[in-house]
Amino acid sequence: MPTDHRAHPTSPPRAPRVEGIDIARGIASIIMIQGHAYDGWVDPAFHDTTSYRFTRLLGTLPLPAFLLLAGAAVALRTQIAADRGESASRVRRKVMTRGAQIVAYGYGLNLLSWTLDGGPFPASLLRADVLHVIGLGILALAWLGIRGSQTAPDPWCPVRPWYPVRPWCLVQRSGVVGLGAVLLCPWISRWSAQIKGPAAYVVGLVADVPGVTSMPWVPLVGWMSAGIAAAHIMRRERARRGDDSQSAVWTRAGAPRSTLWWMSLTGVLLALLGHAATQATVAQLGGPLARTHIAVWFNAIDLAGRGLSVLSAGALLTPYLSEPIRNVLLLFGRRSLVAYIVHIPLCYGLPARGIAYSLDMPSATALVLALIALCYATVRVADR
Question: Domain residue spans in the chain?
């Protein structure tokens, strides 16, 4: 007769929080703030300058990084739950609740933006943006992948919610979902582009509907799947080599240094190869690049590589940061949602109308630093 593990009477001690994930998210948060600020404030006359173009290059990093890090956080939560013997149903419910909260925050931010700035109704209230795709990604991957099993490994992890979590199940299922979303994206996007009426606001959460969707679940959930795989590799390597004298440092960073260097190199190579393949495919088949174009496959690889680079860079830096800098980045990373909600109206909304698209680069840079300081003060208050 199977044992009910819901009580998990002899759970191992809870694993310490991996600072490398939070540091990477903090770095992505600061890059995000500067990217949106320069985009919303700088006069178009300065858009051809080297300094502005550099901010655009940095601006390609936060979106895939946040999605990849969201997937990594789900994977780490699942792995810790497995170490503690928590039941799959309990963990799945908690993670899905968090995903639903993030979706709700997305609609709340839509409401705030519409209240301040107006816009077409109901498109402004119901548009799908980055918080929606992160929340829905967490919901879907947790529901499909956080499963329990009593016996030997099973590739499809039968649903036995009273048994402890099996992290490998999440890696398998999220990989299938992410790869499928990327490969099918051109055809799904062509279908979704034809959706009209109220159904567009439902379909637009999952697939690209013009005028409704800014960030569709297809194909962006693929980056969350990549984050789950990356976190699994980090955790596996840390466990395999955890008896080393540097294990405490690895625990903070998330993985051995050699593993993180390989991940960083892999991220850079994926970004370079994906970018080159995207450009070549668009040139060969004609453009522009869109989610209905098969070049989106290579673009997804490119941006997944950029997100992986941010993750590995944050983890590599973690042991070497001074305490004040570490604390700032950790706070930004753990309260990145607050930073996002605060800075968006200041970059694009009513409070920014007096300076929108009117500043030179030095003036904008001074205000960017002030905005980062304001966001830091806000997340400190929220953290208390």
Answer: 60-320
